[in-house]
Amino acid sequence: MANVKELMSLEGRVSVVTGGATGLGLQMATGLAEAGSNIVICSRKLENCEQAAHEIEKTGVRALAVACDVTRPDQVEAMKEATLKKFGRVDVLVNNAGRAWAAPPEDTPLERWQQVFDLNITAPFLCAQALGRAMIRKKSGKIINIASIAGLVGRNPRAYNSIAYGASKGALVNFTRDLAVKWAQHNIQVNCICPGFFVTPLNRKLYEKNKENIDREIPLGRTGGPDDLKGMAVLLASDASNFITGAIIPVDGGAVAW
Questions:
Q1: Could you tell me what percentage of the chain is helix, strand and coil, using 3-state DSSP and rounding each to the nearest 5?
Q2: Which of 57, 73, 158, 170 is the most buried (most CB within 10 A)?
Q3: pLDDT score of 206
Q4: What is each CA distance from 252 to 166, 167, 179, in whole angstroms?
Q5: Catalytic amino acids?
Q6: Nearest residue to 17 (alpha-carbon basis) of 45, 38, 47
């Protein structure tokens, strides 16, 4: 019987975090590294990935920076090969890269709708497919999809008005459930974190404009902080979650509880 420190340890493991150079991705990548995992940071801008990897290596693990547009199958395959070349394995995939487009439904351009879906649901499929093949070969793996509470409920348009974002995150929620069922036979656990509102460089202006409406919808009375996703990411990446799969877990200050 393992003790809880052993169950939560990620020592020697390899975690890939898409969109991991900034924001919530960097927070989770840092948490995984603090638990002992080596980290692969990928996003479109290599310079940002390299800067994040340098900071993560200060925790004592190894890190790899990879420029990757995760909507392109060839680049996802190249990212997988770079990961296996450096580390020889992949244990955890965090599908974090995402985007939104704010506009009323009647004014949302089809091009923007498609771009949001390409990154928020097609890219997680491509990454899970590519890295999942390596996990299937070794009969173990953890896939953590980062959706949103916007994928669980309709949102107040005075605070949030991005139907493409909510619809794509809802698709990611059920992608999680179905992939969990399909790959349980390979001992791969697939789970989904649904963050509430966390202030990041991408949404800071939205928050400043709608602070009163956003804060009012959170029972804890505050937005997510710089450590609030770390623990959940480590739990779902570790052996402590070996009997958890297909779970959809809000980390939202209670926002979907009322």
A1: 50, 15, 35
A2: 170
A3: 82
A4: 15, 18, 24
A5: 165
A6: 38
Q: How far apart are the first and last CA of the chain?
A: 39
Distance CA 33, CA 187 (A): 23
State pLDDT tens for residues 19-57.
Answer: 999 999 999 999 999 999 999 999 999 999 999 999 999
Selection from 238, 237, 243 nearest residue 95 by Cα: 237
Non-local (6+) Cβ contacts of 180 within 8 A are 189, 190, 191, 245, 246
Q: How is 112-138 classified by DSSP, letter by letter?
A: HHHHHHIIIIIHHHHHHHHHHHHHHHH
Q: pLDDT of 146-170, one tens digit each?
A: 999 999 999 878 778 899 999 999 9
Alpha helices in 14-95 (DSSP H): 23-34, 46-56, 73-87
Residue 51's identity, in one-letter code, is Q
Tell me, what's the pLDDT at 256?
Answer: 95
Give the list of residues 6+ apart from residue 161 with CB closer than 8 angstroms, or none. Answer: 102, 103, 104, 155
Q: Distance between CA 145 and CA 151 in Å, rounded?
A: 12
Residue 139: pLDDT over 90? yes
- At residue 223, the pLDDT reads 96
The pLDDT confidence band at residue 203, using thresholds 50, 70 and 90, is confident
Q: Which residues are within 8 A (CB) of 258 and not within 5 positions of it... i.e. 6 or more apart?
A: 219
